[in-house]
Amino acid sequence: MREIWPAMLRGAGFGSFFGALPGTGATIAAFIAYAVEKRVGRRRIPFGKGAIAGVAAPESANNSAAQTAFIPTLTLGVPGSASMAVMLGALMIHGILPGPRMITDRPDVFWGLIASFIVGNMMLLVLNIPLINIWVRLLRVPYALLYPLILVFIAIGVYSIRNSLFDVGLVAGFGLLGYAMRLLDYEPAPLLMGFVLGPLMEENLRRALVMSRGDAAVFVESPISAVILGLTVLIVLAMSLSRLRGRRSTRSETPS
């Protein structure tokens, strides 16, 4: 517990923040928590070799993001994740319109959801703690048996969508690409964030340009937008400079 509680707190913080942002969800929060913990966490075992912090941080982010995703869904009517979009549709089917007045108009639904959070977390403890031996035994399945089964199930699932072998080949191609990226030590979190947030960014970029009639100055006219863009540029520059310094240091340490 002494080793993992800082990772759990950091993961819960990232999950609470990114879960409350519309459209991000628990997946991005978990990958960001893992990437941050890989850089700043103190650990005796390196990541990828059984470091418990690599499990505690993303799982804490995942659990906290699943709860905070209800904030934009219930207060603004904007789904915080894909599962929240399904829940939003279910509420609208029953004539419940999430929004700022939901707490006053339908307090039974709102406080019922809050109570379900408590009951659900208690049930998770009751189910997971006694069954932890079963989940650990799954890790003892030989890789030679596990990997072919995973590939077969992936191929069956992809083929069942459109009954197309091209989709299966496309998934195999992306699998090879991911394996090559893993061999080259590429981080998966930025790729996942770009895959999830890329379409949203393009859609909102086009919407903003249509509203401003093609004037790109609309992105810096608002103080909030200007500050966020400035921080983004500074973060990218800082990461680029640190990467360049790391490469220079490794080159200088390499014997000629």
Structure commentary:
This protein is mainly α. 77% of the residues lie in helices and 0% in strands. It has 13 helices and no strands. Helix 1 packs antiparallel against helix 2, helix 2 runs antiparallel to helix 3 and helix 2 (25-40) packs across helix 11.
Q: What's the number of extended β-strand segments?
A: 0
Strand content: under 5%
Question: Which descriptor suits the 3D outline?
Answer: globular
**Low-confidence residue ranges:** none
Helix and strand sequence: HHHHHHHHHHHHH
Q: Please compute the radius of gyration using only Cα atoms.
A: 22 Å
Summarize the structure.
The protein is mostly helical. It is 77% helix and 0% strand. The N and C termini lie far apart (46 Å).
How does the SSE layout of this entry go?
Elements: H1 5-19, H2 25-40, H3 53-68, H4 70-75, H5 82-93, H6 102-105, H7 107-128, H8 132-138, H9 143-162, H10 165-183, H11 188-211, H12 218-221, H13 223-253
Helix pairs in contact: 1-2, 1-3, 2-3, 2-11, 9-10
Brief descriptors of the model:
13 helices, 256 residues, mainly alpha
